[in-house]
Amino acid sequence: xxxxxxxxxxxxxxxxxxxxxxxLCAAGFVLHELTVYADLAWSAxxxxxxxxxxxxHSLQEMLPLVGLALLxxxxxxxxxxxTGIGTGPADxxxxxxxxxxxxxxxxxxxxxxLWWLRSIWRS
Length: 123
What we know:
The chain is mostly helical. It has helices spanning 2-14, 19-44, 51-74, 76-83, 103-106, 110-122.
């Protein structure tokens, strides 16, 4: 699940947001939802899922959707071009950002990555 949303987040950080980045973000969201569904279908038959856990997971599911919606609002012209009702063509070419993000936002989140690898190793 980390890669399903990590790749779109890195694309938003490193590239100008256009139709290609929006499609990548939407694909990451759909893939994430399919993974959540498969994970819940498997887990629900094996253990109790408490109401608190359900609430936390519902929040985790909505955060990527809200992020995608905010990107769509800010880049509405590309959304219209994607749907075919815009005045211009959809731009799918990846272009590096003209104004780069500060260096700390571009570094990989090593503590989180190490924690994730440790949890995989232990399971």
